[in-house]
Amino acid sequence: MARARRAVGDVQDRVRNTLVWGVWDRMLETEFVDRSVALAGKAFVSFFPLAIVVAAFVPPAVRSAIFTTLTGHLGVRGDALKLTRQAFVSADDVRKATGFLGLIMTFFFASSFTTALQRVYLRAWRRPRDLKVGSYTRGLAWLAGLLVFMTMTGALGKALGNGLGVGVFIVLTVVLTTGWWWFSAWFLLLGHVRWRVLAPTGAISSVAMLGYAVAAGVWMPNVITKNLEQFGFFGIALALVTWFSGASICLIVGACAGPVLANDPGPVGRFVRGDNAELLVPGAPPSLEAPTRTMRLRDAFTPAQDEQPEHTSTNAQHDQDQAGVRIDR
Q1: For residue 89, is it within any domain?
Q2: Average pLDDT for residues 290-317, to the nearest whole number?
Q3: Would residue 6 count as lying in a domain?
Q4: pTM over 0.70
């Protein structure tokens, strides 16, 4: 039994020293389940309506490109595709109901999704939480960039999506998606992390998102069809939230893999860092220390204790002091 325990302990130590385990540990530290649910909810209630509203104010060609990108990644087919198309086709009704002021307010409301995504990157890289993150300005700029990115990929899909152009479209899509998530990580981290160090985040996020989009084309139509028959249009909403939850986990994996690979003392880390051993740009605030306790699975579902408000800790300490007084009495 002692030899068996030692053997199991040796295997556990080897597993914990792998990069895969490091990424998993960083995901637990980032509370990936709680974060993915928050990202999915905000994407559905803020970003998805933003895409529909903005599409109503742009030329028909741009609107069609955004629609192609959205439905292609979501795997929407059949009756659900017809319902989704109606939301984009009825541009006149959307413009009348929204107006220019409503369009501006929709952008500000949708910035909550960008703020949630920015928290994921800041938490994964252990960046200070009291930085002036510029939620509105950076959020609006990132959203505008995302809509441009969706328009470009949708237009490429229409131009090269047939015959020999399929191969070219796949290569360009991979390059554009990698570049987009590479830029997103740098932009949402306030430019404090070096460009080269963020390359794994862009590559892993791109592969995960594109692979997830391909897989969604297989299972998503069946889910939407069943939900549509059972719950009507509300069933489509449930299916979209499910898709956004999986996509959020893909982004969190890329965000957490970046710092783990960059901090690796082995050849992988040396390749990621290059000639410069520093991860941050000169003048950037230092990163936070690593947690002192071992991460457990339950940490993926609940916020960390150190994120609770200060008055909560003070009240808890006060309650403990009072309990000690009662015990002494």
Answers
A1: yes
A2: 61
A3: no
A4: yes
